[in-house]
Specification:
117 residues; 5 helices; mainly alpha; globular
């Protein structure tokens, strides 16, 4: 495994778990973001499940790099969707920073895992 992937993978792991916990607890900031993005509550729950699956896949990637690559690239797709959702409702600037950083982290982790296959 390429050692440099651990930093972006760890950043992504922490962010995915934090987001999943906020969604599961129905934390006020999470609900406010969901409503601002005009995302239906069932879809928001599905996104949380996908985040959880990606977090598990990233951990599995430490043993099986193909699983880590799939999880990281799946997370990149989630982040691309988040960026589109933000732009669609006019949320730009600082509000886009987290999904952009996580998109870059997911992409670099995915490339690192893929290089280890």
């Amino acid at each position: 495994m390429v050692p440099w992937i651990l930093v972006p993978a760890a950043l992504l792991e922490v962010a995915l778990i934090a987001s999943l916990v906020r969604k599961a607890k129905r934390a006020t900031p999470s609900i406010e973001l969901r409503d601002a993005l005009h995302v239906a509550p069932p879809l928001w729950s599905v996104i949380g499940v996908l985040e959880g699956c990606a977090a598990v896949g990233l951990l599995a990637g430490l043993i099986q790099p193909a699983a880590g690559a799939a999880a990281a690239f799946g997370s990149a797709l989630l982040m691309a969707g988040a960026i589109v959702a933000h732009l669609r409702v006019g949320l730009a600037g600082r509000r886009l920073l987290a999904p952009l950083v996580l998109l870059a982290s997911a992409t670099s982790a995915g490339l690192g895992f893929a290089a280890s296959i």
